[in-house]
Amino acid sequence: MSSTTKPGIRPDQLFTASATRLDLRRALNAAAQTWAAATRGANPRGGRAAVEAALADVRPLEEFFAYPVPRLTSALAECIAATCSRCNTQG
User: Fold this and answer.
1) What angle do the packed helices 48-65 and 69-86 form, to 10 degrees?
2) Integer Cα distance of 45 and 29 in angstroms
3) Stretch 23-50: mean pLDDT, rounded?
4) Nearest CA among 34, 43, 51 for reference residue 89
5) Domain segments of the chain: what residues?
6) DSSP letter at 68?
C-alpha cells in the first residue's frame, strides 16, 4: 500500500457534509475554469487531470446524498472525455 494515499472524508465529518459538498463543488468549478482558460490558449490539454481528479473527489459524496447525481456525474465524465477527443488530446 502506498504511503501517499489521499485521505477521504472522515466519519466525524458527516455533519459537515453540506460544507464539504460546497468545498468540493467549488474546487471542481475552479479546476474547470482553469482548464477552460487553458483550452482557449496554447495548451488544450492543460488542466484536464485536475478536473478529472476534482470530479473523482466530488462523486462519492454527491452520489450518496443527491438524486439524480449519478447520472449527471457520469454525463459530466463523458463530456470531459468527449471534449478531449474533440481537441485531439489524451490526458
Assistant:
1) 170
2) 17
3) 85
4) 43
5) 17-86
6) S
The contacts of residue 25 (CB under 8 Å, 6+ apart) are 58
What is the predicted pLDDT for the residue at 30? 94
Residues 54, 28: contact at Cβ < 8 Å? yes
CA distances from 7 to 67, 73, 82, 91 (A): 25, 21, 30, 24
6-34 pLDDT tens trace = 556 666 666 677 888 889 989 999 998 99
Rounded Cα gap, residues 20 and 26, in angstroms: 10
State the Cα–Cα distance between residues 28 and 89, nearest whole angstrom.
21
